[in-house]
Amino acid sequence: MDIQKLIDTAKALVADNKGLLAMDESYPTCNKRFAKLGIPETAELRRDYREMIVTTAGLNESISGAILFDETVHQQLKDGSSFVNVLTDNGIIPGIKVDGGKVAMAGHPGEKITEGLDNLRDRLTEYAKMGLRFAKWRAVITIGKGIPTQACIEANAHALARYAVLCQEVGIVPIVEPEVLMDGDHTMERCFEVTEQVLHTVFNQLYTQGVVLEGMILKPNMIVPGLACSKQESVAEVADATIKCLLRTVPAAVPGIAFLSGGQSSQLASARLNAMNVRFKSELPWELSFSFGRAIQQPALDIWLGKEKNVPEAQKALYQQAVFNLAARQGEYMEKTDK
Ligand code: 13P
Fold first, then answer.
1. pTM of the model
2. Cβ(102) to ligand 1 under 6 A?
């Protein structure tokens, strides 16, 4: 294992106030987002969409790395070049989602476990040869009546740690993503309590499996109330709670924390990240960054609608969202929000 290479890549992913662009939606997720807008759910349109993203001029000013889906790395741009090469040539580090998605967890109604460890070593070796330098595995934790259970948290944390150590073996930086979902009417306090428990369990497992903390990135949820909760805290309250929870649970050796957006609006996700950096940036042991999917892509997808003629406007929107988050990392994001 080349530890220095892992450390260098992990640091590069969170350097210069840039962040990650998650464009690794699986077939069902990407199709669901297309269907909502009446875009045909075809492999060709998924390719077109992703070509629109990676050919956006200036994206590398605010994006350090892009997370791809397996389908995309086997497709080409219209001019025949590969997605991996186009990103690399533009100074954006290419990464890959390697989990196999979530399935119902046996014996635990309402809970999910992420699959994909079978053959993972072989797949990672192949991806490393293709030039992919980091990977992502997402575990989801649902808050509800009587859940999450310790069994679900431990099983997911164990899988995350086994994935992470396999990545590091072949020189790929693991993005470790335990996502506590926003769905439901739970309070922000409940999200705090569950996230704290999840992160303690994840870092315990990462330690047990021998993961090099300096060579990984954590991708957590922010501490937010459930989407259906009647009390929605202010941006500042979310920022304070999130930092408090992360300071309790994430070792200082981890170079960076890159949040998922998890269904927050683009504005709220940026405003909350901004508030955390305004209030705490100088005191934190890790870089506080973003690895947004929807919060960067959604405005562009709404404009693109599967039509070639909309590409320039969609690219402008994508570029703008990425720049907003570059600003949020510096505590300089100005766009107005409802809260
Ligand atoms: P969102 O920012 O849309 O939650 O996507 C991030 C991601 O990669 C989810 O796994």
1. 0.97
2. no
